[in-house]
Amino acid sequence: MQQGVGFFVKIFSSEEYRNEFIKGNLYMNPLKYFIDLEEEHSGNIGDKHEALSAWLQPSGMRMIFKFGDQEFEIPSSDIAAPIAIKRTHFDSVNVLCLMALHSHDISLDGRISAEQVELLKDYFAVPEDVVNLGEYAVVIPNTGLFLEKVQAASQHLVDNGEASEMIAKTVKYYDQSQTLSLTNEEEAIFHKQKSYEHQKEFRISLDRGKGEVSPYVLKVGDLTGVAHPIMTRDINSTFQLVITPDSE
After folding, report:
1. Would the pTM count as exceeding 0.70?
2. Is residue 62 situated within a structural domain?
3. Is residue 54 within 8 Å of residue 181, measured between CB atoms?
4. Do the domain assignments include residue 63?
5. What is the pLDDT of residues 2-15, one digit of tens each?
6. Residue 40: which domain range?
7. Distance between CA atoms of 216 and 208, rounded to whole angstroms?
8. Is the confidence at residue 173, as pLDDT, over 90?
9. Is 243 inside any structural domain?
């Protein structure tokens, strides 16, 4: 994981799901699962705007429909809401969603300001409302080792022709009141609207290249000692950022 020192958190709705994860069986839903999911809580895991390559605001935009030699224009004043553009190809891509708590490029090797201290406390805290995602969790301090296991298992699938690509990245959040237009559509999987920013998501995507919209279990090997079990409500009280005054 880039962007400084940090660790992963994975939250589960049942202890059974958590135990399977620790055994190394990583359950990955297709992206369409999250697109279609309707939930009681807003900003939870369901997101009908997943994987948009463009989110175009009506202001300053016009739409032109062509019928042979004729054109029909819709001015921006008649466009009531942002226009969303996406590729259905992403519906079948399987994803594993983790929470990434990290220092956001603030160096911990030297002096840090009081303002940076407050930022770090927020960066390393799990938002209280994520308990809506589930009561059970694991904490993964050694993110490098975890990602090595994921990479090795994914590469095995690619080598055997069972998958075309695995990508692991921190999700970027965009302001839904502004226009989003991605020049690289493959980045769409790693962009979400700002209302989901509290999830601090790190996402692993696996494209099996089959167009099959179904869950997949990626077997990475035993994660005992890598993924540490904990109750979601106890994370903030158990893992705390402690900063001591400079003795100089």
Report:
1. yes
2. no
3. yes
4. no
5. 555 589 999 999 99
6. 6-53+81-238
7. 9
8. yes
9. no
Q: Structural domain tally of the chain?
A: 1
For residue 159, give both structure tokens: 């080598």
Dihedral sign (CA 172, 193, 39, 238)? positive
pLDDT at res. 107: 67
Structure tokens at 16: 């059974």
Sorting pLDDT into bands at 50, 70 and 90, what band is 61?
confident
pLDDT at 82: 86
Q: State the Cα–Cα distance between residues 225 and 227, nearest whole angstrom.
A: 6
Model pLDDT, residue 242: 67
Residues 10-46: tens digit of each pLDDT:
999 999 999 999 999 999 999 999 999 875 555 477 8
Q: What is the 3-state secondary structure (H, E, C) of the chain?
A: CCCCCEEEEEEECCHHHHHHHHCCEEEEEEHHHHHHCCCCCCCCCCCCCCCEEEEECCCCCCEEEEECCEEEEECHHHCCCCEEEECHHHHHCEEEEEEEEECCCCCCCCCCCHHHHHHHHHHCCCCHHHHHHCCEEEEECCHHHHHHHHHHHHHHHHHCCCCCEEEEEECEEECCCCCEECCCHHHHHHEEEHHHHHHCEEEEEEECCCCCCCCEEEECCCCCCCCEEEEHHHHHHHCCCCCCCCCC
- Nearest residue to 28 via CA among 92, 101, 100, 99: 92
* Nearest alpha carbon to residue 182 among 82, 50, 49, 53: 53
Instruction: Return the structure tokens found at 237.
Output: 């009280």
